[in-house]
Structure formats: structure tokens, C-alpha cells
């Protein structure tokens, strides 16, 4: 697999699942050579995968910033302050133009930039881009949203990187927490749907492994129908529901249980929590 080559060096501060998904997308596509990627983590445990791929690894976040042109900040928001304080104690000194890509929930572009500006060792011009990926990015079917300034020098490259893991939509920052609650948190809710469908199948005598496969493929196929048919989900639902049939009877039970309201409430609650985490 090959794609348009990227001439920038890329770094990751944090080696969790999202960093792994994005970095692996780069490696599989061969858009950036392994030796032009660096990743840091506090322990060797999270770096083993990268060492096997030939990626440069370190425990020093300052080394990542010194080496890379584009740095993904892939730490949890509650650890960001500690990361910054750590950088202030190093001999970091960079004056090159660069880009920081934050995947931290709740943190605005402005707040991340203001905090990075307190690090005296970063003296050159830099921009901050916000990206919110989701876990299906780990299998190349992710859905990411991205916020960048219209004058951004790096936005097209960052979007290219994110599209290696699935789709990437540019949005206004005012929608970031809402989109994060939908596409970022959404997989967890849909995994629960798959589990519940499979449990229903097991209750009726379907072996569990078969029930999981049927439920997961049904979910995947339904999503593909929405994406490729161009039809409203309600229309597609109606096409499955025969008058007086079994499907509309099941739909009636879901409506009685408040399914729609439960999902809407979950998205709202997740967005509100993201707002809290950013304060």
C-alpha cells in the first residue's frame, strides 16, 4: 500500500491506542518512513510495538519535539499539565516552524496553544490543530473530526495523516465536543448494541460466537447501507418493516423502551462531560 509521501517528521507524545492507530496507519501506507517517526512513553511496555516497527522511541518528550515537525499530543487531558512542567525542566530549544496536534478531550486549540507558549524552549512559530479520532481507527475504519485555522500550513498534511485511519471531517471548534460525543464515544454505545443483539440471539438458542458475528456484521452492513445508499435511516428502517410483520413488532418494543431518547441523552451527557474535562 502506498500514498502521497509526506516529507515532515512526525512525533507522538503518548503511546496509547490512538497514537498506535494513527502511527500504524502511517507505517502501513508508507507515507513516512519508520525512521522519520518518534514516539515517547513513560515505560518500555508501550514502546515495544514501535521498536519492532523500526520507529525511534524515547522516554524524553523534549526529544520528540526536537526531532519532529508535527507532534501529536496523545496524552490524557489530566496529564497535560504534568507534561508541560516536565518540558520546562529540560534543555529543550527549538526555533523551527512546527505543528502540535492535540487529541485531548475537552481542550480547546486556544488553551493548548497558550499553555505551550509558556515553554520557553519552544521559541519558533508553531500552530495547534485539534483532532478527535475514534477506536475503529485501529482497523482503518475510523471517523475523525479536525479543527484548524484557515491559514494553517500543516492542516492538509494532518488531514492526510488522519485519512490513513478512515475518514476525517473538518469542523468548527464549537462542534468539537458534540462530534466527540457522537463519533468519539459512539463506538462504545454501538458495542453495547452489538452485545445486546447477540444476547437476544443467545436467549433464543443461537451459539454465542455465531450470535456475535451475526450482530457485528448486521451493524457493519447497516452502516454501509446508510453511507452508500444515500437514503435516510428512517427510510431504510421502513424498508425492513413489513406491515404487521416481526420487525415492526420489535421496533415497537424498542420505542416503548425509549431507545431514541436513551441514545440522545448519552450523546448529550458525553458532550457535557467533555466540557467539564476542558476546564
From TrEMBL:
A single Gene Ontology MF term assigned here is: pyrroline-5-carboxylate reductase activity
Binding of NADPH: at which residues?
61
Pyrroline-5-carboxylate reductase dimerisation domain spans which residues? 173-277
Top-level division of the source organism's lineage? Eukaryota
Catalytic activity, EC = 1.5.1.2
Q: Could you provide one GO biological process annotation from this protein's UniProt record?
A: L-proline biosynthetic process
Q: Which reaction does it catalyse?
A: L-proline + NADP(+) = (S)-1-pyrroline-5-carboxylate + NADPH + 2 H(+)
| Pathway, per record | Amino-acid biosynthesis; L-proline biosynthesis; L-proline from L-glutamate 5-semialdehyde: step 1/1
Q: Which residues form the Pyrroline-5-carboxylate reductase catalytic N-terminal domain?
A: 9-92
Q: Which Pfam families match?
A: F420_oxidored (PF03807), P5CR_dimer (PF14748)
Residues binding NADP(+) are: 13-18, 74-77
| InterPro entries (UniProt xref) | 6-PGluconate_DH-like_C_sf, NAD(P)-bd_dom_sf, P5C_Rdtase_cat_N, P5CR-like_CS, P5CR_dimer, Pyrroline-COOH_reductase
Q: Which keywords does this chain's UniProt record carry? A: Amino-acid biosynthesis, NADP, Oxidoreductase, Proline biosynthesis
Q: Does the keyword Zinc apply?
A: no
Q: What protein does this entry describe?
A: Pyrroline-5-carboxylate reductase
Question: Which species expresses this protein natively?
Answer: Lygus hesperus
Record lineage:
Eukaryota, Metazoa, Ecdysozoa, Arthropoda, Hexapoda
Amino acid at each position: 500500500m502506498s500514498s502521497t509521501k509526506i516529507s515532515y517528521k512526525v512525533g507522538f507524545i503518548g503511546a496509547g491506542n490512538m497514537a498506535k492507530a494513527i502511527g500504524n496507519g502511517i507505517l502501513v501506507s508508507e507515507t513516512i518512513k519508520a525512521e522519520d517517526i518518534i514516539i515517547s512513553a513513560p515505560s518500555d511496555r508501550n514502546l515495544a510495538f514501535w521498536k519492532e516497527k523500526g520507529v525511534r522511541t524515547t522516554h524524553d518528550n523534549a526529544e520528540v519535539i526536537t526531532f519532529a515537525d508535527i507532534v501529536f499530543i496523545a496524552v490524557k487531558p489530566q496529564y497535560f499539565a504534568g507534561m508541560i512542567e516536565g518540558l520546562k525542566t529540560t534543555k529543550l530549544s527549538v526555533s523551527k516552524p512546527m505543528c502540535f496536534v492535540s487529541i485531548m478531550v475537552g481542550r480547546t486549540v486556544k488553551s493548548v496553544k497558550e499553555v505551550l507558549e509558556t515553554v520557553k524552549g519552544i521559541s519558533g512559530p508553531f500552530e495547534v490543530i485539534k483532532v478527535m479520532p475514534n477506536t475503529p481507527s485501529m482497523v482503518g475504519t475510523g471517523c475523525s473530526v479536525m479543527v484548524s485555522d484557515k491559514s494553517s500550513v500543516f492542516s492538509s498534511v494532518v488531514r492526510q495523516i488522519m485519512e490513513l485511519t478512515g475518514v476525517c471531517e473538518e469542523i468548527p471548534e464549537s462542534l468539537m465536543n458534540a462530534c466527540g460525543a457522537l463519533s468519539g464515544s459512539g463506538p462504545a454505545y454501538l458495542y453495547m448494541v452489538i452485545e445486546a443483539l447477540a444476547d437476544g440471539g443467545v436467549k433464543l438458542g443461537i451459539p454465542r460466537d455465531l450470535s456475535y458475528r451475526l450482530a457485528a456484521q448486521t451493524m457493519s452492513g447497516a452502516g454501509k447501507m446508510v453511507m452508500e445508499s444515500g437514503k435516510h435511516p428512517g427510510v431504510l428502517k421502513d424498508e425492513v418493516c413489513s406491515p404487521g410483520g416481526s420487525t415492526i413488532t420489535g421496533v415497537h418494543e424498542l420505542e416503548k423502551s425509549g431507545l431514541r431518547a436513551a441514545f440522545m441523552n448519552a450523546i448529550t451527557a458525553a458532550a457535557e462531560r467533555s466540557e467539564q474535562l476542558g476546564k
